[in-house]
Amino acid sequence: MSRIPVWLNAPSRNLWVRFLAASLRRFFDLLYTRLAWTYDLVAWTSSMGQWRSWQQVALEGLPEGRVLELGHGPGHLLLDLGRFHPSVFGIDPSRQMSRLAATRLRRRERPARLARASAGALPFPAAAFEAVVSTFPSEYILDPQTAREAHRVLRSGGCLVIIPTAEITGKAIYDRFARWLYAVTRQSGDVTEAWLEPLRRAGFAVETDRVQLARARVWRIRARRPRD
Hints:
This protein is α/β, with parallel strands linked by helices. It is built from eight helices and eight strands.
């Protein structure tokens, strides 16, 4: 599972954008490893304090039962999921993120059902989950193998929910600055067919929507495994 956001791999003829993308690739790599302890601060700052509310868009309408989070990071969404679902699991390839998430869960007296693994090779049996969730994933989510693995571990009628991107819509100066920065670095934008085609090929029925929050609009992809 790569740690590089999807947008960083988009081609560009602009030399400055290419230089920025190369620099940020290195930064994101460190953010998930040596600098994992700064992740929450970076996420909060870059989203102008909205990161957690963006993540929580994934919670709405999840089916009851076992849930798996792909790329659990520092573990905030695992705690959110645990409030509504009795059995929550997470995978992430980063040793540092696994430690952060495990510590956060133990402090809240929640079970740490975590595995260091790739989304393309999930260490779970077939039909193990009612739902799979991924928020702001890196380019692993576009890999057809990820879609096939998600389909495999979902039960009949189960749902994969992806929160791919958000657009800041607030009117305050700091929101307008963040919106400009996201536009320049191409962190916001519409969900393209590149996101959806691997899911359809894996056998999912796919739909998308945009959820309007107080200061942002968040894209959501729902990919449902048809009932057998």
